[in-house]
Write a structure and sequence with these properties.
Layout (H helix, E strand, L loop, with lengths): L2 H24 L1 H54 L5 H11 L8 H14 L3 H11 L12 H15 L1
Helix pairs in contact: 4-5
Amino acid sequence: MNDTENQKESQTVAEAEDVKESQEDENPKEKQKMNRAEQQAFNLEKRNVYTSETARLAGIKSGQSKRRRKAMKEALNEILSQECQDPVKRELVAKELGIPVENVDNQALILSAMYLKATKGDVQAARWCAEILGEAVQKVEVKTDVAVRSQEIEDFLRSDE
């Protein structure tokens, strides 16, 4: 190869590189859009696979958690239904509640303690007792101005005349 051929070849390579660079420079937004589109497609694929697998695992964990809670509830019910082991507490509760000593179990012990607290003025204990009975009091806030409300009532009464 002679010098002129080498020069022509190097010019051709340089021109090709310039053309490539100019094409990249002309379309940076298009390149960025492609990258965004590719990224979105990848994210969708990843999300779909990840979501279905996560949902399956979450369902398994949820089932385990439910079984664990059920077992704990059964164990607690068993403990509460057992007879109170402390004879002094058992007799005190029987006297306070007016029930036979043999009927005092752990559940009655707890209920009597909360009942006594409630009768002494403990508001939380009173709420707890109400919740146990299914009579939980709901907090209701009224945020109307008395003057506005009375005006509405007067307007309503005048409209009937």
